[in-house]
């Protein structure tokens, strides 16, 4: 038997999607989107084939949605909301978020959004919006190498955040200034604002931001050669990220640990952490940090004397930076390439890259790393035995290193200057710098030992934590098993939500495209509708007349002819009392006449019942259909299934019932005459404001596009009846696949 339960399932699915439509848009739109458009989905009763195709479409589109570019969805949504928004404060919020989302891939567009947000915010006196837009502008300036201008921008943002007493805003601006002051070599200023950021993030309990602040401060301790303090901060940041399960940002901890171990000459540990950073950056497609990790790992391979591998990683980093339009950050790669070519004995290439680095740093005002470049140039000329030039660059590097408190470079320069003076015979100066070298080396050795002890202590704690994690793993697995069912249900809902969102967006785009065409057809449709209304009124009047005439004839047969026949029967009865007095041949004629009279009375009653649909009139539509089913099945030609949902003891309007009965009666007649079917399913689903009827057969089907077939099967009469009830009539059929008739009737006149 054909499956009819899909009708109920589809109705329930319609309610689920309708009730969750606003929620699904809130998930997919950005968290600052303030208004959600209410939507409604109309779901019609469909046959089993269409339902199967819809379910397959859900699975396919949902799988694709997992790989969909979510950032692009958010940007498109914000742009649309921005166009529709009339509130200036909300516009500022949207523009700042658009600037943030575009800052990496399209910095020029991001800068445009931020400046527009700043302009509107200044116009309406929205200080929080001004500060946020300044942060966006400063971030872009910093990424493009405009460090001095970025410092001015972030200081302006900091001043506004202090005026409105926004602790988070103050901490945010201080964090950015920490990076900038470090870059331009103002280490003490960087240290002060970095401490302020850490303090405020602790007060706010903002753990992700606190981890980032720890990383920035660790770099400053590294400059001061306080490796124990630097490692302590990096490990603290890593613990926070593990606690938050923020695996995407482990990369910052790994890169800082890699750099620290490189400075401590632990090449194996540095290579391990750099490899982890590259793995994470590749996994999350983080091109910015991938280029940084390539730069860092090139230094490890340089220390391992694998110079060609180091050169390859630098070129990879340069390619990424150029694609991201971060040309001003390539100076570090020039330094590393200079190291490698110097080690390979290719001095001219080394000088070329060192000079490029020096020019770029001086051009953009980046004092970070200047002392290292001077040191490298000094080493190069020392190798060429040009000791005066070597001393010139060593001394320039020393001035920069001491100014920025870079003790590691200072230590190296003390030793290099000592060697240069020794070779050139300036013994007094040589002794002086040798003493400075020894004193600084001893102080750094103590720091180094503390750092190693801290590293060992941390690793021991990690081993203990791993044992505890193993003990907790079993309990977690049990808990996960309990949650599998819930997660599956939630996942299914999310898939449906994603499908709905995708279909809704497609629907809206299609509607916009068709809007112009629809406007051109409005006048023609109005004329057509007027003609159709007139036709429907005529058909309705005709059918009402037919039903009235049927009822009148039935009443006359029952009341007039029926009563007359009954009187004749009574007269025959009176004659029957004297029947014995009649002759025998008259008795036979009397019996025949009496039998014919009984048959005439029965036939009158049957005609009256047929004309007025007696069972329908007395008991309603469903009993009448069941009676029709029994009558047809008694012939053995057809097996009929009558299913109804939502019908109670209340009756429909008689006009609706009689029309529906005649429609179904006509459809069954067509099936008997034309379809060669053996089974028919009649399904009636009554809702609050609508009645759905589906009649399905397993017959040979037909081509619904052939007008001759439609006219020959009497379907136009059925369509007329459906139209008179303001309903919809659809046919789904094909040769060899059976026929499905779907009728939707609005119930606006229930008794």
Biggest sheet details: 5 strands, mixed
Rough outline: rod-shaped
**Strand content range:** under 5%
Report, as a whole number of angstroms, the end-to-end distance: 34 Å
Q: What's the total number of strands?
A: 5
Q: Main sheet: which strands, in order across?
A: 1-2-3-5-4
Q: Any idea of the CATH class of the domain at 619-746? A: Alpha Beta
Report on the architecture of this protein.
Helix content is 76%, strand content 5%. The protein is mainly alpha-helical and 751 residues long. It has a 5-stranded mixed sheet, with helices on one face. The longest helix is centred in the last third of the chain and has 150 residues. The radius of gyration is 45 Å and the shape is rod-shaped. It starts with 5 loop residues before the first helix and ends in a 5-residue tail after the last strand. The N terminus is likely disordered.
């Amino acid at each position: 038997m054909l499956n009819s339960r899909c009708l109920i399932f589809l109705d329930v699915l319609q309610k689920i999607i309708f009730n969750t439509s606003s929620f699904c848009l809130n998930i997919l739109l950005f968290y600052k989107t303030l208004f959600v458009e209410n939507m409604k989905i109309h779901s019609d009763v469909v046959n089993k084939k269409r339902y199967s195709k819809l379910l397959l479409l859900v699975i396919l589109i949902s799988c694709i949605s997992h790989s969909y570019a979510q950032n692009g969805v958010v940007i498109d949504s914000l742009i649309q909301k921005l166009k529709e928004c009339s509130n200036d404060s909300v516009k500022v919020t949207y523009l700042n978020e658009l600037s943030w989302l575009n800052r990496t891939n399209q910095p020029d567009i991001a800068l445009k959004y931020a400046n527009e947000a700043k302009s509107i915010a200044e116009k309406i006196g929205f200080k929080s919006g001004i500060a946020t837009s300044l942060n966006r502008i400063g971030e872009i300036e910093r990424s493009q190498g405009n460090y001095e201008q970025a410092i001015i921008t972030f200081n302006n943002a900091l001043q506004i955040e202090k005026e409105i007493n926004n602790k988070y805003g103050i901490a945010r601006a201080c964090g950015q200034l920490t990076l900038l002051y470090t870059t331009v070599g103002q280490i003490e200023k960087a240290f002060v604002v970095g401490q302020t950021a850490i303090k405020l993030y602790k007060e706010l309990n903002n753990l992700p931001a606190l981890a980032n602040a720890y990383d920035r401060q660790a770099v400053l301790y590294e400059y001061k050669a306080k490796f124990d303090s630097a490692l302590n901060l990096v490990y603290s940041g890593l613990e926070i990220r593990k606690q938050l399960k923020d695996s995407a940002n482990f990369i910052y901890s790994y890169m800082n640990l890699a750099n620290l171990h490189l400075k401590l000459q632990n090449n194996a540990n540095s290579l391990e952490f750099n490899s982890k950073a590259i793995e994470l950056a590749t996994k999350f497609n983080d091109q910015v940090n991938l280029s940084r990790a390539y730069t860092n790992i090139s230094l490890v391979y340089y220390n391992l004397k694998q110079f060609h591998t180091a050169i390859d990683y630098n070129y990879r980093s340069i390619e990424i930076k150029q694609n991201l339009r971060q040309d001003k950050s390539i100076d570090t790669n020039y330094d590393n390439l200079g190291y490698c070519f110097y080690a390979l004995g290719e001095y001219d290439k080394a000088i070329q890259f060192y000079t490029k680095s020096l020019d770029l740093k001086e051009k953009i005002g980046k004092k970070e790393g200047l002392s290292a470049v001077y040191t490298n140039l000094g080493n190069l000329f020392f190798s060429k035995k040009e000791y005066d030039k070597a001393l010139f660059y060593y001394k320039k590097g020393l001035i920069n290193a001491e100014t920025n408190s870079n003790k590691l470079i200072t230590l190296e320069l003390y030793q290099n200057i000592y060697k240069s003076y020794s070779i050139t015979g300036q013994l007094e100066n040589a002794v002086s710098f040798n003493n400075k070298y020894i004193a600084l080396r001893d102080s750094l050795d103590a720091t180094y030992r503390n750092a190693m002890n801290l590293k060992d202590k941390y690793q021991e704690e990690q081993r203990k934590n791993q044992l505890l994690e193993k003990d907790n793993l079993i309990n977690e697995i049990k808990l996960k098993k309990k949650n599998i069912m819930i997660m599956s249900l939630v996942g299914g809902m999310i898939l449906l939500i994603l499908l709905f969102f995708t279909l809704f967006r497609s629907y809206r785009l299609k509607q916009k495209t068709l809007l112009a065409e629809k406007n051109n057809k409005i006048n023609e449709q109005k004329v057509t509708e007027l003609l159709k209304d007139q036709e429907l009124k005529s058909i309705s009047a005709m059918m009402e007349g037919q039903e009235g005439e049927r009822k009148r004839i039935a009443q006359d047969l029952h009341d007039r002819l029926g009563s007359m026949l009954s009187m004749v029967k009574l007269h025959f009865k009176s004659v029957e009392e004297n029947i014995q007095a009649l002759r025998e041949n008259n008795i036979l004629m009397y019996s025949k006449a009496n039998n014919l009279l009984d048959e005439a009375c029965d036939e009158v009653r049957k005609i009256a019942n047929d004309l007025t649909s007696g069972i329908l009139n007395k008991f309603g539509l469903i009993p009448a259909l069941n009676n029709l089913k029994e009558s047809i099945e008694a012939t053995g030609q057809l097996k009929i299934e009558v299913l109804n949902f939502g019908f109670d003891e209340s009756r429909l309007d008689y006009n609706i019932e009689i029309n529906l009965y005649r429609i179904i009666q006509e459809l069954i007649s067509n099936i008997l005459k034309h379809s060669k079917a053996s089974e028919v399913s009649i399904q009636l689903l009554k809702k609050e404001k609508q009645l759905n009827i589906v009649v399905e057969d397993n017959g040979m089907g037909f081509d619904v596009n052939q007008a001759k077939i439609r006219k020959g099967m009497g379907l136009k009469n059925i369509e007329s009846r459906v139209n008179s009830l303001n309903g919809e009539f659809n046919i789904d059929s094909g040769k060899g696949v059976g026929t499905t008739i779907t009728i939707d009737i609005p119930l606006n006149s229930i008794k």
